[in-house]
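Lab notes, practical 5.
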Amino acid sequence: ISEITKGPFIEYIPVNGVVLPLTTIYLDALEGGRVEEKYVDDGTIMKKGEPILRLSNTDLELELVNQETNVYNLLTQMQIAKNSAEQNTVTKLNQMTDVENALKEAERVYKLDKHLYDEKVIGSQEFQKAKNDYDYQLQKKKLTQRILQQDSISTAQQLNQAQQSYKGSQNALAVMREKVGDLIVRAPVDGQWRERRRTVFF
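Output from the prediction step:
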């Protein structure tokens, strides 16, 4: 209760208050590190995804280099293994060609000597020698075919394992690159960048 006096008419009442944003998002770096560079100042209006600051993490960056080296080494080893397998296959195929050629010759001699033996032109010892040579070449061909088949299966398994290992190392490298990329802290949403007591928020 106070005394009524004559004065100017005021349509508003001054009241002290604090204005707060409707939504506040506190920013937390996914990877720890030392602040190397700051791209924006306090109060800057930003779009989602724009860089705010860049951190440095020597251990993380060194781990990325090591992972990249590992991927390149695996790729080189896989290429060497593939070339070696191809050369080995060519060698086995050449051996198979030699075996087939020797078998054809042994078969020709055997059939000729068998005819001569039936005609009593040659003796049994000469005929038996031709037969033994033919049987030997026939078994050698079967063995060479088996070795070639097993070699093809083994080569396919080794190359598949190498590819799986390389694929796994590539996935690990992708994850590591993503972690290093997180050293650049970006705006999570559209808004105004504010810094208060080392706490950043929108």
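Observations recorded by the TA: The beta strands are 34-38, 45-46, 51-56, 184-186, 191-192, 194-196, 199-201. The chain has two helices and seven strands.
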